[in-house]
Design goal:
Radius of gyration: 60 Å
Number of strands: 30
Oligomer: single chain
Strand content: 5-15%
Shape: extended
Structural class: alpha+beta
Distance between the termini: 138 Å
Length: 1468
């Protein structure tokens, strides 16, 4: 239908019925027509019928059409905000969250009505929208039935809030007693807080927050709205207890002030005023203000009333905020609009209250407008088809509207009058006034207009009935009609909202106040009055009806097929009731009063032409081709009425009857075709019929169709029988052929059976004979086996008996020998113990031994006294050393001041020398030019020629430049100040003297610093290897060279400089210096030239390891290499060189070793940084005792791009089947994230590391492995958003592997620092750190010749080589500094560990002394026990001897008995 309305698809097909999309499309296209008239779509139906979803569909379609021609359709605008279409659609979730709730009939029932007006410009582009709401059901805030829910926003906040929001909104799960928060709170748990079927509350909160942010709400604004929602929940938790006042009355008291404090904080109001609003009612009279304390029940009502007031005001504020976001900016841009009304349907429950009366009043007004609209459509249809005489009477329910809303005797008017009485107004009085007004007569139960009725029983109960267009509805007046209509804000609540409250509460209350106040009194100079709910509602309803009447309305009636919300189930009674409530049946009745059946001319003629089969084609054609449709219809109707008046005759003129007529004769005859011709009206394009003619035409059409169908069926059955006969004949022939074949095959089969029987008989006889033979053979074999087995068993039994006998004899002899041996050993041990005991007794009586022990004790005491004296002497020496250090420090400060002065003087002299050199060069050039001019003048004078031209003079001068020597101009006249080479040499010698003096001062400063360090080492009472002198030497000598200008890309290796190239460079440099000296006219003497010779080693910082200037005395023994004693400095240097080479070899081998992988056991400890509600979070092990392979993985050419990967090692099965082991078991660790690498388990006790296995045996095994601290390595990494620090504890298989990994990792980190980080040594100055790392003498690869070569005469070596060597040495020095820094930190940790071990050792010694005392006491006890044990052993030996003697005697007696018995036997 939508495609056909847009001229797409097959438009000639049958028109489809109405649909939601087609209605929306029709309204948009009518709005865009030439009239540009606004449209409105009214969607109604009962709860659960689909009004909300239908509204969404209509809005989506209209906004899509309105944004289809804009660039921001469906996305973001140019300024980054959402488009108007998206903002309009995103307003629905917000309104549903605050205005929808679950009822028994619907999970997402709208508890308010809304009218959404979409504004479009002249081009049909959506400009904005405006939302107007009607009659929010605020009574649901305080009470809702079982199985229902409060508004969605409460459950979304309770179930979807995170931990932070729980803490912010005071949702304490521990105080609910095991209940869910939604069941714990009073406002949400009355109905059981059921879950929704379509979506969860967590998803609903996320969708609501997303919509709020899409509307442009700030996070602060969203948080304030949610705080008010949470405050309403806490307000519902306030409970009251009763207490007696001073006057003896029962008044309410807050049971828990904590709940009130939470509610006041979240609502943004004053706590004391909130308590007053809950427990006190203020009455203002003309003279004074009265405060009345409320009872607990009244206080609970005040609490619910305050909650409803706050929520209702917040809902109005939310609607206003939504309108501010989606409202169009300029009203002049709006040329037409399309409104969508989502209004509640007609309601009739068991108990109906004020809300149902307002809802049904709204439906009455909309039904009145609907009836007028239907009547208007009917009249326009008849006028368009030029049909006269059609009168339609429709039911007018204006009297019902007047009965409810008219003044002064309407139901709502009487209710307003009763509300004006204040506290005197009662619901019963209002019901009594209505009965007196509408039922004035005695025993009258129905009003004069039949709209109001009430029986005597109903009047007594306060019940009255109103007859609406959909039926009678009973209303109970005792359901707080007056309270709901007043909807007053108490005086205490007004002061609560207007004073000492937050800005949002004031703004929310201002929105409600502006809507509820009556502006008419203010215009007349009177104070503003509060409008009742019915007055507000009537004003909104009147504006709605006026808006609908100004537009072209479209109606959508939503029907609910069943109350169980099940598919494919339709209840006829419920549908009929909804059709009646929706006014559809009334619309059908109005339509049937005119001409309800309408067909176009073509359809009418084709449908009913078959009713005149006997009329020939020339009189009334069957086809309408080239015919006027209206003319044929008129002719058909005339012939039809004429033929219908004739009697029915089925015979032909010749008396025969056709088969079709015979069939017609056998059927039931229809009524005659007789009806007034006026009941059928032929319009311009349609045929209008009443129900009577239409029924006659349809009955005759069915009659002729049945006859035709019967005739067709008879022909079809004949053809079927003929076809069945042919099939059966062919089948009989086939059966005969098959039977003959069966007979032949049976005879052939019998012959085969006879032959097979003979073969079977022969085979059976053969099997019988074979069976006999096999049985005989098996019997013979079994008999032989039994005989042979019996024989073998006899032999085995005899052998076994003999074996047991021999074993018994040997065992008896062994026992006797063992017993004798044990007895002999006991005797020997006893004798040895006696000897030892006697020896101990003699030693205790010997005084010499006691003296020896006393001497040992005296020696130990003497050694302790010596240690104390040495310690006291060292303390005295420390004080003297401190004084010496202070004196040396003062000397160092004086030397540094002198050095600064000398440096300044030296810089000044260097500037003078440089200036003199420049002046001397200028003077030499001027001298050469004067000499050339004099030579030229002499030549010209000698030739006697005339003066040459300037061109000839220039060529002549150029020809004599090279030939004119510098010595030929001795007698030249020099004008001005003259600079001689002797003066320049004097300045240079002064510069050299200052440099020597500066070097001497620096040497003295270094010596003083070294002496200070030795003194400090002496004070600390420990020997240190002084390597700082070398580092300071480098810093002082190379501080003038900018280390940041060094470029490592041009530094050659040690093997790149061949000796021949060096000699050649030296010769070239010497030649260039000689030529420069000749050109300048400077002649140096031999001793001065020798002083200016400089070697590369003089410019290279020499690091004197282990030796200080001035200490070149006798040979010293130092420890170097692999810690073996050396007696010479050469051996020490060679040992250090070998050790460094071995270390470099290890480092070079470490890269491929780590790239292949090292098996380690990994623990990762993450230390938390965030602080939660319960305190700071504890440390967490992300990885526990995981066996992995540590690999170095390069992702690029730079070390910064390199990471450490942790791969799973796999088990024995993986190794056996060759499964890949390079699967990542943990996230990689970049080298750039590593802070430090240390030995041991730093920051955690290695014995307490957790195990990943829960098995007892395996965990104990892992703990035993963790006891070895020398196998552990700690890597500290940078912080992450989840942890303030990360520590990786690695346990390796051996200590050597741990040391290699430690050294290699530190080397890698040093390379990363040196090559790709910031230089850390003092070789480069901080001021030059922003330049490239290149020395002045090192040239770029493509920069050409070095500009520093041959330009300074006082340097006799190539500076490029010097600077390249300095670059390499600086890198090595940086690397050594990094490794030494890590080694010093390890040394300090080991010293701390040794100190702690020393304390433990002293404690252990004290414990051992205590144990010695205990052991001495135990030894005495052991001696006593040993004596008793010895006595027992001796007694045991005696008993054993007696036992042996008795056994021997028993054996002898038994032998004598046997001999005696044998003797008696022989005698017998």
């Amino acid at each position: 239908g939508l495609f056909r309305s847009q001229n797409l698809g097959d438009s000639s097909a049958k028109p489809l019925g109405p649909h939601v999309y087609s209605i929306a499309d029709r309204s948009y296209r009518q709005m865009m027509s030439e009239q540009r008239k606004s449209q409105s779509i009214l969607i109604s139906g009962e709860s659960g019928a689909g009004k909300t979803e239908t509204t969404k569909i209509v809005m989506l379609y209209l906004t899509t059409l309105g944004s289809a021609h804009t660039e921001e359709a469906g996305g973001e605008a140019s300024d980054g905000k959402l488009s108007i279409m998206e903002r309009v659609l995103q307003s629905n979730p917000i309104l549903e969250a605050f205005g929808n709730a679950k009822t028994l009939r619907n999970d997402n029932s709208s508890r308010f009505g809304k009218f959404i007006e979409l504004g479009f410009n002249r081009a049909g582009i959506l400009q904005g929208a405006k939302v107007q709401t009607y009659l929010l059901e605020k009574v649901r805030i305080g009470y809702h039935a079982s199985g229902e829910r409060n508004y969605h926003i409460f459950y979304q906040l309770l179930r979807g809030a995170n931990e932070e929001q729980h803490h912010k909104y005071c949702f304490h799960d521990g105080l609910t007693g095991g209940l869910e928060l939604a069941n714990y709170f009073h406002l949400t748990g009355q109905g059981g807080a059921p879950q929704l079927r379509e979506f969860t509350d967590e998803e609903g909160l996320n969708y609501t927050l997303k919509s709020m942010r899409s509307m442009g709400w700030t996070e602060e604004k969203i948080d304030n709205v949610l705080s008010i929602v949470a405050g309403i929940l806490h307000l519902g938790q306030v409970k009251f207890e009763s207490k007696m006042s001073d006057g003896g009355q029962e008044i309410a008291q807050i049971a828990d002030m904590k709940t009130v404090a939470d509610a006041a904080k979240l609502l943004g109001v004053d706590q004391e005023k909130l308590v007053t609003a809950l427990t006190v009612r203020i009455m203002i009279t003309r003279r004074e203000e009265m405060r009345i304390d409320l009872e607990p029940k009244k206080a609970a009502d005040a609490r619910d009333s305050l909650a409803k007031t706050v929520y209702g005001a917040m809902f109005l504020w939310v609607v206003k905020a939504v309108n501010d976001c989606i409202m169009w900016e300029n009203d002049k841009d709006i040329k037409s609009s399309a409104g969508v009304l989502d209004i509640f349907g007609f309601e009739s429950f068991a108990i109906n209250s004020f809300e149902q009366l307002c809802i049904n009043f709204t439906n009455e007004a909309l039904q009145q407008q609907f009836n007028k609209f239907i009547f208007k459509l009917e009249q326009e249809e008849y006028e368009r088809e030029s049909i006269d005489g059609a009168f339609i009477d429709f039911a007018d329910n204006q009297d019902c509207l007047d009965h409810i809303g008219a003044r002064p005797k309407g139901i709502l008017a009487l209710l307003d009058d009763e509300c004006k009485l204040g506290a005197r107004g009662k619901d019963k009085n209002w019901a009594l006034k209505m009965n007196q007004t509408y039922l004035p007569e005695k025993n009258q139960t129905v009003s004069d207009n039949t709209r109001y009725s009430a029986t005597r029983m109903q009047q007594a109960k306060g019940i009255f009935c109103v007859r609406h267009f959909a039926g009678n509805v009973e209303y109970s007046s005792d359901t707080d009609f007056l309270e709901k209509n007043r909807d007053e804000v108490p005086t205490t609540a007004i002061s609560l909202f207007e004073q000492d409250s937050s800005d949002l509460i004031k703004e929310i209350y201002g929105v409600q106040k502006s809507q509820s106040e009556d502006s008419a009194g203010a215009q007349a100079g009177k104070p503003k009055k509060q409008k009742t709910v019915s007055q507000q509602f009537k004003i909104q309803l009147n504006s709605l009806i006026e808006m609908v009447e100004k537009t072209d309305p479209h109606y959508i009636r939503c029907l609910k097929p069943n109350d169980a919300a099940k598919p494919m189930l339709m209840t006829r009674k419920r549908l009929t009731m909804q059709l009646r409530y929706g006014g559809v049946l009334e619309a059908v009745r109005v339509a049937r009063m005119g001409y309800p059946i309408r067909l176009d001319h073509v359809g009418y003629f084709k449908r009913y032409r078959m009713l005149l089969p006997s009329i020939p084609d020339d009189v009334l054609p069957w086809s309408m081709d080239d015919q006027d449709a209206q003319t044929l219809c008129v002719k058909f109707l005339d012939i039809l009425l004429e033929e219908g008046a004739k009697p029915v005759n089925y015979a032909n003129p010749d008396g025969t009857i056709t088969r079709a007529n015979k069939i017609r004769m056998t059927q039931r005859q229809p009524d005659k075709m007789e009806f007034p011709k006026s009941d059928v009206q032929l319009g311009l394009s349609k045929v209008f019929m009443r129900k009577g003619p239409h029924d006659r035409l349809e009955s005759h059409r069915v009659f002729h169709q049945n006859a035709s169908i019967t005739l067709i069926q008879s022909w079809i059955r004949g053809m079927q029988q003929e076809r069945r006969y042919l099939i059966m004949g062919d089948a009989a022939l086939t059966l005969e052929r098959w039977y003959r074949g069966c007979l032949g095959r049976a005879r052939w089969w019998r012959l085969r059976e006879a032959q097979a029987g003979m073969l079977l008989t022969n085979t059976f006889r053969m099997q019988i004979s074979r069976h006999k033979y096999v049985r005989a053979r098996c019997g013979t074999v079994r008999l032989q086996a039994q005989y042979r087995g019996r024989t073998v068993r006899k032999v085995n039994a005899a052998t076994k008996i003999q074996t047991f006998r021999r074993m018994y004899v040997r065992n008896t002899a062994y026992r006797k020998l063992k017993s004798a041996s044990i007895a002999l050993q006991c005797c020997a041990r006893r004798d040895a113990a006696k000897k030892v005991f006697e020896e101990i007794k003699r030693e205790q009586k010997d005084m010499g031994k006691i003296k020896e022990h006393n001497e040992k004790l005296k020696m130990e005491m003497a050694s302790l006294k010596a240690m104390l004296q040495a310690q006291a002497a060292s303390d005295a020496g420390k004080a003297e050393s401190v004084k010496a250090v202070a004196e040396k420090q003062r000397e160092i400060d004086a030397l540094e001041a002198r050095i600064k002065a000398l440096e300044a003087e030296l810089a000044k002299e260097k500037e003078n020398v440089k200036k003199l050199e420049n002046d001397l060069n200028v003077q030499n050039r001027n001298t050469q030019m004067l000499a050339q001019d004099l030579e030229f003048q002499k030549a010209m004078v000698s030739q006697g020629s005339s003066s040459p031209t300037p061109l000839q003079r220039k060529s002549a001068r150029s020809s004599t430049v090279s030939a004119a020597p510098a010595e030929a101009v001795v007698d030249a006249v020099v004008v001005g100040h003259t600079i001689t080479p002797e003066a320049l040499a004097q300045h240079r010698s002064e510069v050299a003297r200052l440099e020597e003096q500066l070097e001497e001062e620096r040497r003295m400063s270094r010596a003083a610093r070294i002496e200070v360090k030795h003194l400090r080492a002496a004070v600390a009472d420990k020997g240190v290897l002084d390597v700082t002198a070398s580092t300071e030497f480098i810093s002082d000598n190379v501080s003038e060279i900018s280390g940041s200008e060094i470029d490592r890309s041009d530094i050659p290796g040690a093997n790149d400089l061949e000796p021949q190239m060096r000699v050649k460079e030296k010769d070239t440099a010497a030649k260039s210096r000689n030529e420069a000296q000749k050109n300048m006219g400077i002649h140096f003497q031999g001793d001065m030239r020798g002083n200016l010779k400089t070697q590369v080693s003089e410019y290279f910082p020499m690091i004197k390891r282990g030796l200080v200037d001035g200490e070149e005395g006798g040979p010293e023994v130092t420890t170097g290499g692999w810690k073996h004693d050396l007696s010479s400095r050469k051996d020490r240097e060679e040992g250090l060189r070998d050790e460094v080479r071995i270390f470099e070899t290890k480092v070079k081998k470490f890269y491929p070793l780590l790239e292949e992988g090292v098996d380690v056991t990994v623990w990762q400890l993450n230390k938390g940084a965030e602080v939660g509600v319960d305190g700071p979070s504890g440390d967490e092990f992300a990885v526990k005792s995981s066996s992995m392979t540590l690999k170095l993985h390069r992702r690029g050419d730079l070390l910064v791009q390199t990471v450490l990967t942790f791969n799973s090692t796999g088990g024995y099965l993986s190794k056996a089947i060759g499964r890949r082991r390079d699967k990542a078991a943990h996230e990689p660790l970049p080298l750039n994230d590593i802070l430090e690498v240390k030995a041991g388990c730093v920051g955690f006790d290695h014995a307490e590391l957790p195990s990943s296995s829960s098995k007892k045996g395996k965990s104990s095994k892992v703990k035993s492995e963790n006891m070895q601290s020398s196998l552990f390595l700690t890597i500290k990494a940078t912080a992450t958003p989840m942890a303030s620090s990360r520590s990786y504890f690695l346990r390796l298989k051996s200590r050597s592997t741990r040391n290699d990994l430690l050294s290699g990792m530190r080397g890698i980190l040093a390379d990363l620092q040196v090559h790709e980080g910031v230089s850390i040594s003092q070789i480069q100055t901080p001021a030059a750190a922003q330049h490239a790392r290149r020395m002045p003498g090192s040239a770029h690869k493509n920069a050409g010749p070095n500009p520093f070569q041959g330009k300074r005469g006082d340097i006799m070596v190539p500076l490029a080589e010097v600077h390249d060597l300095i670059n390499r040495e600086r890198e090595s020095y940086d690397r050594l500094l990094l490794i030494m820094l890590q080694g010093s930190s390890d040394l300090k940790e080991k010293e701390d560990e040794l100190l702690s071990l020393r304390g433990k050792l002293h404690q252990s010694m004290a414990d051992c002394a205590e144990k010695d005392k205990t052991q001495a006491n135990d030894s005495k006890l052991i001696m006593q026990l040993s004596k008793k044990l010895e006595t027992l052993l001796m007694e045991n030996e005696d008993l054993r001897d007696n036992n042996d003697r008795l056994n021997g005697r028993l054996v002898e007696v038994e032998c004598e008995k046997m001999n005696l018995a044998a003797h008696l036997q022989q005698q017998k």
